[in-house]
Amino acid sequence: MAFDRSLFFKELGRKAFHAAGIVIPAAYFFFLSREWMLAALAICILGAGVLEYMRLNGRSLFGSQFMRPSEDKRLGGYFYAAVSLFLAVLLFEKTIAVVAMLCLVIGDALTGLAGVVLSMYMGRMTADVRQEDTARRGIISRVVGDTAYALSHPKSPVLMLVMFSVCSAIGMLFYPALPLAVIAAGALGAVIADCFPWRFLGFVIDDNLSIPLAVGILMSLTLLLYNIIL
């Protein structure tokens, strides 16, 4: 499949909209307190919830130019992003929360663009293969099946490398005093969340929700171990 300019620029528009969210971690990094950041994100969640309710009921204010076809009948990624940014600020210390948010806003955007280009040259329409599993099975069978599906449908190692490199650069640029092991753990969390199509009981886990949480959890655990050992 040759390079498709229209497809690329459509994805570029989506990712530019996505990357505009950089104002949120930037505001937290430079001047907003944790309390004000949580309040602002709570308002964002409420607003996104109202917009999604209207869209899913046929009264969209902005059309579907920034939505994936897979989001036609389910919540849009920006709603999950608002929730995950709120949880990152709520659950993690500021240093880790900022890195986790930037890994979503910047890392996911750049990896997404790289994925579009790579997929076109590989003859595929998308690098992501997230899809629900509606088969009726027991809980254990579903968990095993969901895990096996995710592990057997990874994105290209090239995209894993892009995500890991971008997220590592984010950590080193914004918080150079952080141990490299902590930064690497966060970047690994971003790769795990973004590059495997995780599901829970058959339902797709949106990477806009999972990336900041995976980054924050792995960074927090690694920093805890680092402080205990050293």
Automatic annotation (TrEMBL):
Q: State any single GO MF term.
A: ATP-dependent diacylglycerol kinase activity
Protein's name in the database: Dolichol kinase
**Which segment of the chain is annotated as a signal peptide?**
none
Going by the UniProt record, its keywords in alphabetical order are: Membrane, Transmembrane, Transmembrane helix
Q: From what superkingdom does this record's organism come?
A: Archaea
User: What parts of the sequence cross the membrane?
Assistant: 12-30, 36-54, 75-92, 98-121, 181-202, 209-229
